[in-house]
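Changelog excerpt

This revision adds worked examples to the README so contributors can see how folded entries look when concatenated. The first example is reproduced verbatim below.
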Amino acid sequence: MAEQKVRWGILATGGMAATFTADLVDLPDAEVVAVASRTEASAKAFAERFGIPRAYGDWESLARDEDVDVVYVATPHAAHRTAAGLCLEAGRNVLCEKPFTLNAREAEELVALARRNDRFLMEAMWMYCNPLVRRLKTLVDDGAIGEVRSLQADFGLAGPFPPAHRLRDPAQGGGALLDLGVYPVSFAQLLLGEPSDVAARAVLSEEGVDLQTGALLSYDGGALASVHCSITGGTPNSASVTGSLGRVDVPYGFFYPDHFVLHRDGREPERFTADPADGPRASLKHEAREVMRALRAGEKESPLVPLDGTLAVMRTLDAIRDRVGVRYPGEAPSAPPATDRVVTPA
């Protein structure tokens, strides 16, 4: 017997919204019933592109649409708190793109709103829903490499991005850390949890956002995680986690890997390969399926992407920004050590 379709609303009409919607319409148990943008023209064009029956030129109308089971929020992340909050207050369930919000305070407000209104809420950290990443976590948790000692992960794009680009715009939460660094930090969170101490350095643009950032995360058990992100150079985009008995290497695209290699002392390397159906964007479908599974089960959060983990990631990102002196409009300023930042006219 076919499962009842979950009815989706899409809030925003940019590239990420289009990519996710294209995957949603391929899922037989998903139905995209509405889309909203700040302009009616943009919403209508998006609706025509994907065959969506209702298009709204404002966010409020989508939030009030009782035919929508869950809203996917894909605005620039500076607007996540407002957009997701509007939907939660109107009684909608929400899947919100990463980074979840600009800072931990906003994230805590959204989580409190979801719990107060008894609604489902999840960060769109699709990496956590990837079957091969889940397999990696199971191996590490089960002691395949012993006690974790260190972790490395990086994500960098070559650019260059002009000052007007959203990645350079403070008003849109620009910078490498929130847009790209959220992946290495979330990878560390997945395997090691929240760090007990954070050290960081960054190269800042004239606009005051980070062009590249490196952070060293320390854990009470003695593990260290080195994470790096950049919008000035294409990095290997890889990850590695080393334990007392071995190591796991994840090649380019560690957040949607096609394989990883387990090295264990005294054994031949073992290669774990993704299902051929799990192409580079298949994790978005796994993410959507997890949301729909949770909604049908009556769950208010996903065990794969728990809200407490999302809050921990946001606290870590806040701590890194604290160390390097990145502040967005409306945030209270603080004076980090001068040695943690380098300003470049790039």
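The second example, added in the same revision:
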Amino acid sequence: MKIHKWRKKKMLMVILMIMGFVAAGVGGYIIYSSYKINELSKMTFEEMLDFTVKNNKDAIITVGIIQNGKTTYKVYGENGMELPQEEHIYEIGSVTKTFTTSLLFKSISEGKVSLDDSIDEYLDLPEKSYYPTIKRLVTHTSGYKASYFEMPMVANFLQGKNDFNGISGTMLINRLSKINLNDSDYSYRYSNFGMATLGAVLEQIHEEDYTALMNAFIREDLRLSNTKVSESSGDLDNYWEWSESDAYIPAGGILSTITDMLAYVQTQLSNRLTYLSLAHEPLTDINASSEMYQKMGIHMDAIGAGWMIDNGNNIIWHNGGTGNYNSYVGFDKDNQIGVVILSNLPPNYRIPTTVMGIELLTSLQN
């Protein structure tokens, strides 16, 4: 009996630890740095970069800029050394969400779905008085938590794998059926679960698996040749493992390169795909910038369809982080300036790309 109780207690401890890690998984907005936050405001982008890659022989950070109609990029390694201008394949984490919402807005432009539709119009869910609307999913105001515990998380945690690997669409639907919410705009809460739900809705709208659907959209509409849903392989190391048709892929499962991501930003800046611009429009004010974020220059004043909006700096942006990668994408549409930073370092390693990217982008604006 004592052994049984100890096993139950040990399992509970593991579950609590897992939920702590998962809360920040797939590139949320919790930013950690070993450097004193107050000193960040005094640092230039170059100083931030040098500090981050100091004495790290494995670091490969690629920095891309769009300005004056031109795109350029450089690759940096240990101690800020400029490396050969090679393209590397990075996990972009939660920047994936902007691809998912881009596909959503294409679907809206085709009359297949509306932001005001509730998710039970598309998903096979038990009858309830209320399910969230798609608008609340994309603005993270649905009331859903960042994620919910599922049994595959135990093995993933113990084996050091991607927390969300093996969480199926069936598990997602079962979880949705158990959650009870009120019909209201909840306070902003970043939700990988909500974006996973949007992915399931898109699958039903298009009657196609998300991976095939997204890869076709990337290739045919966005015209990107080196971006795709992850197959856990590339020229770098420590990619997250995903299982086929994992429910959380729409929240953080895409791989890309610097030239593709710069082309992606150029498409956001242009009018080639007009429905993309609609995703940049503020849907709700969230005022989610904590005092710590503001000290680091991170402003989350409003939110569009997945995109964060910094009103003061006129920046539209998103970041991403997986176990071993972190990324930042930001742009100023009025001045046609964009920045992409892709890193093979974890988001909690020294100064993350989000802080470096904002510093670089605002310096270009000035």
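Reviewer comment on example two: The chain is about 35% helix and 15% strand. The first strand starts at residue 61 and ends at 67.
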